[in-house]
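Weekly modeling sync, notes
Attendees: S.R. (lead), two postdocs, one rotation student

Agenda item 3: backlog of single-chain predictions. S.R. asked that every request posted to the team notebook include the full sequence so nobody has to chase files. The rotation student volunteered to paste the first one in as an example of the format we agreed on. Action items at the bottom.

Example entry:
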Amino acid sequence: PAASRGSVAERASLQSEEEEQEQEEAEPSAAAELRREERLRRFRELHMKRYEACKLNSQEVLEEDKRLKLPPNWEAKKARLEWELQVQEKKKECAARGEDYERVKLLEISAEDAERWERKKKKKNPDLGFSDYAAAQLRQYQRLTRQIKPDLEQYEKLKEQYGEALYPTSDSLLHGSHVPSKDGVDRMVADLEKQIEKREKYSRRRPYNDDADIDYINERNAKFNQKAERFYGKYTAEIKQNLERGTAV
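Predicted structure, as returned to the notebook:
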């Protein structure tokens, strides 16, 4: 009986040792499996990030190509068109409320902004009278182009009607295919009548400039100085500056 009990104990100890050895072998394999799953998960995340980066790069390349094909001043034109659309919406709102848009706009402008815009307007487009026909033609062109109001609804209709033919090339043959609308003809006639009326009231009297230097004693002397400045101003500018500074020799 003692020998049988010893053999049972030995078998139990051997079995426990085998179980411990199997457990020790199973633990590294489980840890290795966890590490493998973690690496696979990180690999998938990196793969998705790489895919997203490629996708964003492709989109940015397309957007950059579109921007390069646009005119150089497209952003300024777009901002101005959006501003004009906002102005038209405000005009419609004021008309619906029975208010004067110009009065409402002036109420929203501060005195400092009004003075700054007035100074900028005088500096940007001073009316110096007639100098030559090229300058007069340029001023007329700028005045007429400022009056043009884009009609985006009509533009979309023309795009649907003509498609790619709306943007002609050197190989396009569109002569005689365009018929102006009645509203466009009426606008042209009204503008021509306004030009004729303004031309009839035109006076050659030059505007008085408060900021100009007073270098004359009467009207006749002022005319003489203007003629002298026109023909000899570029030659006597340095002499005049030296006299004003008191450094003339």
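Discussion: group reviewed the output briefly. The mean pLDDT is 78.
Action items: rotation student to repeat for the remaining queue; S.R. to check formatting next week.
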